[in-house]
Write a structure and sequence with these properties.
alpha/beta, Nucleotidyltransferase, domain 5, five-stranded mixed β-sheet, 7 helices, 5 strands, globular
Length: about 210
């Protein structure tokens, strides 16, 4: 019988955008997670929406060819007061999904609230809080942190999917590390892998708030 905790995955996370598209590639083996690549693909200098979408489509196809991801994790259910902005984001989502479908890559969708909840334990966290949490528990040096939050948003999406892959965090119905840890009554010293990293980061953030 295959040990699911040792399964290998390459996850492509995408934060759809019409000016900057966040992307991240995670390589996971069991509870071990490695960032292969992440950033914000810049198309804002191109004139017109459709040339930008075309550029994003070809970029994602090249990224898929390079890393051979086992799935695409993408943010959906985007809501904005401006209908035109919503339409443009939906177009960008469609392009990312089409790029994955063209390469036979399975697709998984996550709402912004679910992603934030998985990373910070708070579905209403800011993008900056999500980025800070990711940097802490994934040990990303300051010099490697991208300036655009689109990149860390994509990383959060990919990591959110990692947490849904049937790892121990799923026990008891928990879908994020913080919920799992609270239900088990674990302390920082008792946690291992991503659990320890996340709980230590949460403790650090809480101390700063106090």
């Amino acid at each position: 019988m295959i040990d699911r905790n040792r399964q290998e995955h390459i996850i492509l996370g995408v934060d759809p955008g019409t000016l900057f598209m966040g992307y991240a590639i995670l390589h996971t083996v069991g509870q071990q997670v490695e960032i292969l690549e992440f950033g914000a693909y810049d198309v804002h200098k191109l004139e017109g929406q459709y040339p930008r979408l075309q550029k994003e489509f070809f970029f994602l196809q090249e990224l898929i060819d390079k890393h051979k991801p086992s799935c695409l994790a993408i943010e959906t259910q985007f809501v904005d007061k401006n209908p035109q902005t919503m339409i443009k984001i939906v177009h960008a989502q469609g392009v990312a999904i089409a790029a994955a479908l063209s390469k036979d890559v399975p697709i998984y969708e996550y709402s912004p609230m679910k992603i934030k909840m998985a990373i910070t334990g708070n579905g209403h966290s800011s993008k900056e809080q999500v980025a800070g949490m990711l940097q802490r528990f994934m040990h990303i040096p300051d010099e490697q942190m991208p300036k655009k939050l689109d990149a860390t948003d994509a990383l959060a999406i990919a990591y959110c999917h990692f947490l849904q892959l049937g790892l121990p965090v799923r026990e008891g119905g928990a879908k994020d590390w913080t919920t799992y840890a609270k239900r088990k009554g674990l302390t920082d010293k008792e946690l291992t892998g991503p659990n320890a990293q996340l709980m230590a980061a949460l403790a650090s953030v809480n101390k700063k708030k106090k």
